[in-house]
Design goal:
Blueprint lengths: L1 H14 L11 E8 L5 E8 L10 H13 L1 H12 L6 E6 L2 H14 L10
Helix pairs in contact: 1-3
Length: 121
């Protein structure tokens, strides 16, 4: 069910159905975790800043999460209509920080000077 929820919300973003001004920029849904009983779904959100090599500012992240929270009712209605389930899960929105973590680790590894290795020019 998590993958289906991810697809539906992603499609809503692409089609511009979520009209809140907080949905500016390149925003996506990376994954959705649903509890065993289906009562809650945690939606992991990603967004790119002005420069892909720099993480998004906290204020921008908070604005995006606030936009998702304001649109929660509309999203749940669309999920219920699309998936046709008896109880639509309560949606919780979190920022997916895995991309930022990966960029940080890549920078650390790139900056390491390991003895015996020559850097290519």
């Amino acid at each position: 069910m998590g993958e289906e929820i991810r697809k539906i919300i992603s499609d809503m973003l692409v089609r511009g159905e979520l009209k809140d001004p907080g949905f500016r920029g390149l925003i996506g849904v990376s994954s959705v975790d649903v509890t065993r009983d289906g009562s809650y779904a945690t939606v992991y959100v990603t967004a790119l800043g002005r420069r892909p090599d720099q993480p998004l500012a906290e204020e921008a992240k908070n604005n995006i999460l606030a936009a998702f929270r304001r649109s929660r009712g509309f999203i749940r209605t669309e999920l219920a209509r699309s998936i046709q389930i008896r109880h639509t899960p309560e949606l919780l929105f979190r920022f997916d920080t895995s991309m930022e973590y990966g960029m940080k680790m890549d920078k650390i590894l790139t900056d390491l000077e390991i003895p015996g290795e020559e850097k290519e020019e």
